[in-house]
Amino acid sequence: MDARARRSQEKLRSAVISLAMAAPIAEITASAICRGAGLTRDTFYRHANSPVDLLADALRAEIDELMTALPESDAIGDGERALLEHVRRRAAVYRGAMNPLLAAPIRSNLDQSIRGGLELWARLHPQIVPELFVGDEAAMRMAVAYAAAGTVGAIEEWLRSDDMDVEQAVEVILAASPEWWLH
Hints:
By secondary structure, this protein is an all-alpha fold. The chain is built from 9 helices and no strands. The protein has helices spanning 3-22, 30-37, 41-47, 51-67, 76-89, 91-96, 104-124, 137-160, 166-176. The chain starts with a helix and ends in a 7-residue tail after the last helix.
């Protein structure tokens, strides 16, 4: 992506995040995002199909940046903590994307990010993987999908509460996780 397109993308991401902090994503229009970014609708549609897709892209970029630290982590809870800190910081945005579940593109991004983190964790720590999954890619994908979907569901429930205590949420999610992930 050239520098001009990257600047436009960043302006659009910033505008949609700002607007989503104040209003549910279902109420935000492409025109409002364009006004906030100082860009045209044509530019908007070169970067996104809809406001919710743009919001999902903006949140995904933030999560991707957080996940770069995962290989240096000592415990799986470090990645969980970083993700939950992001969700807490953007709680108004995520809550504005729920009706009653997270909008599909945003939920999908969380799921994909968590899956990627779990797959990386298992590759970095092969000794934790149960015998049943060793050499069975389909079984491992199922285990990762199960854990990721559960984590997304837990995040949605956490967003419904008034208590945004990250440490408690990390403890609850890890306690609900299969123990082999934690070794």
